[in-house]
Each structure stands twice: as C-alpha cells, then as structure tokens.
Design goal:
The chain has helices spanning about 15-25, 95-105; strands at about 5-10, 25-30, 45, 55-65, 65-75. With about 120 residues, the protein is α+β, with helices and mostly antiparallel strands. It folds into two domains: about 1-75, 2-Layer Sandwich (Signal recognition particle alu RNA binding heterodimer, srp9/1), CATH 3.30.720; about 80-125, no CATH class. Strands 1, 2, 3, 4 and 5 form a five-stranded mixed β-sheet that branches.
C-alpha cells in the first residue's frame, strides 16, 4: 500500500509546488497526474467545470525527496483552510538544516510556535 498526502490550494498549487521544489533539494515538480492514472501533463479544468476558466490547472504533483505530494487547485470559494490539524514534518540532521528550512518556509514570524511554522499558503511545517 502507498499513501500520498494531497493538499488543496486555491489557484496556487503550481506556484506552491515550484516553491517547495526550490526549498528542498532532490525535489521536482512532476506534473504527471499519476493520482488519476492519466498519462502525461497537467490535468486542466474543462469548459463545463466552473468556477475556473477552462484550461487552468486542476491537479499537479511533486516529489519532495522521496515523498510524493499531490496537489489540487480548488476554486477558492470554500469555507476551510490549512490549519495545524495536519502538518508536514521535516527530519533534519542538525540545527543549521533546521534553520535553513525555517528561514525558507516561514511566511509570518508570528506563526512560528514550538517548532512549527506556517508557509505562505498556510501549510503547517
């Protein structure tokens, strides 16, 4: 069995994937849509899938080290956001590595408490 974390972004999943791949070495934005077993390329919204414009990205994915992460670009009109109820943990070898990820990921210094931070999209790390 293989489990894949799936995060719902609001029209920013591609930007988030590119940012995360920049922060973590040995990472890549895949755009393979393996989640839906569709060959190659991104999955885009179609003409009959409002509120998005046809052709905007629906799903993309990336690998962070050895972890596969799937991402959805939602319509931005829902009543939920990321919160501390779910978070991603990065195991580090030393304080310098912790500091590197902390400085790269944290969007608001006030959001960092007890070793946890929130990034620009509200994802807890």
């Amino acid at each position: 069995m293989k489990m894949v974390p799936h995060l719902w972004f609001d029209t920013q999943a591609v930007a988030a994937a590119e940012f995360y791949a920049d922060v973590f070495s040995d990472s890549a934005v895949n755009h393979t849509t393996r989640l839906l077993n569709t060959p190659g390329g991104l999955i885009h919204y179609g003409e009959s899938q409002p509120p998005h414009q046809a052709g905007t990205v629906m799903f993309n994915d990336l690998t962070l080290g050895k972890m596969w992460l799937a991402m959805l670009d939602g319509p931005g009109s829902h009543d939920f956001t990321f919160n501390e109820g779910a978070s991603l943990i990065v195991y580090c070898d030393d304080q310098a590595e912790v500091d590197q990820y902390w400085d790269s990921l944290i969007a608001d210094p006030a959001s960092g408490q007890c070793g946890w931070l929130k990034d620009a999209w509200g994802v807890s790390w």
